[in-house]
Design goal:
Layout: H1 3-16, H2 20-47, E1 51-54, E2 57-58, E3 66-69, E4 72-76, H3 77-83, E5 87-90, E6 102-106, E7 111-115, E8 120-124, E9 133-136, E10 142-144, E11 147-151, H4 152-159, E12 161-166, E13 169-174, H5 175-188, E14 193-194, H6 198-201, E15 208-212, E16 218-222, E17 227-233, E18 235-239, E19 244-248, E20 254-258, E21 263-269, E22 271-274, E23 281-286, E24 289-294, E25 299-305, E26 307-308, E27 330-335, E28 338-343, E29 348-354, E30 356-357, E31 369-371, E32 374-375, E33 380-385, E34 388-393, E35 398-404, E36 406-412, E37 415-422, E38 425-428, H7 447-456
Parallel strand pairs: 1-13
Antiparallel strand pairs: 1-2, 3-4, 4-11, 5-6, 6-7, 7-8, 8-9, 10-11, 12-13, 14-15, 15-16, 16-17, 18-19, 19-20, 20-21, 22-23, 23-24, 24-25, 26-27, 27-28, 28-29, 30-33, 31-36, 32-33, 33-34, 34-35, 36-37, 37-38
Length: 466
Amino acid sequence: MNLEELYNVDDKKEKTKIKPTKLILILISIIMFFIIAIIITISILKSNQFYFYVDGKTAKVSEDIYVIQDGTVYLSIKDIAKLVGYEFHNGEYKVLSEDPDKCYVENENETATFILGSNQVLKVAPDTNDDYNTYIVEQTIKKINNKLYAPSDAICRGLNITFNYKKNQITIYTMPYLLKSYQDTMKKYGYAQISNDFDNQKTILNNMFVVKNSNDKYGVVDINNNEIIGTKYNDIKFMENTNEFWVKDNQEKVGIIKANGQTKIQLSYEDIKALDKSANYYVVKQNDKYGVIDSNGKNVIYCEYDNIGIDKSKFKSDDVSNQYLLYDKLVPVNRNGKWGAYNINGELAINIEYDSLGCSDVNIENKQVNPVILIPNYNAIVVCNDKKYGIVDVYGDILVPIACDNIYSIVNNGNKTYYITRNNETIEIEKNLRPGIIKETPQNNNNSVSQNNTTTGNNIINSNNV
């Protein structure tokens, strides 16, 4: 190798030698590549990870706590109840059973019942004889993974929570948490407090508050302190089932105001209660007498009666779902110690001439017997005079003469059978009374109709039988 060739080799080595700064840039590029790859990987993993938050905190839950079917989010009733402070039980509230197709959740203020295949949530205060408030949701309760699941709107209604779902994330806020969060805000607005009444506190789930000022007057505001009902009432009660407010003035008169602030029922009454679930009618008290008005305040039954509605506690095993409305059409009324009934149109259906409705004191030494007021298969009602019992239909026509000593039911293997007794003789009603007696039009409620029905013997147990 000559000298020139030697110099050429040295030049090549010098040219192929990598400068330190360039090496550093290459290493940085490689590191950045790996960092970006890690970030992308983490993002992908996070996008597939499920997050469940309760009151702002991450909750550890099972993967099957929710499912999505046909675009609807369903939640495990049992698992959600535990997360938000409710007890879970199989069966239906007040009915001792372990029926896996029914369940209820409860806290100290309320119970909520869910039934497989139903699109209803049934709520009632515990340890009371109050009627259930029924709430309709779009989808039905389902059994998935051998557990009862409810659509998210049913869960929100039953457990008094808010719910939000977005891809792989569920956020829930409980009513107590929301109330605590807004206490200071409401005080800054100048209110003494948010109402302590449990029903009133439910308004927060609709972005409203029942508030009390320093003068102990109540009103309703929205979440931004926009006034809905002025703080000038002695008392306010939120009616969840109708989304309305029962209000009382300083004269102790009550009325109803809608959630938009419009007056529905003027403050003219001593008391108001919803007669039906849809709140189309109300039982009202005026001058110590009771009557019924419609949702426009029009009289359906004038305030002339000493009492309206039956005592449900006397007929715990009977088919009475509403103490004010029998068969969804009859309103029991009492005047001067006598009972009768009007239909929902305000027409007298059963003459006000009976000592009582129903046979509540069954004089039989048998623990299996149940007192009754309704005979559902016959659209009939038990009536009483002079401690004797009979049966009339919803139009007042006599089906069984008032000559019986007892009318009662017995449940055996899930089947309810109705009986009457007279002079120590027992007669099964189904074997002697033709079922399905439902007239299409009301009959005149007079003696001639009753006599005609009594003598034909086609639709009744006649006096010879009893």
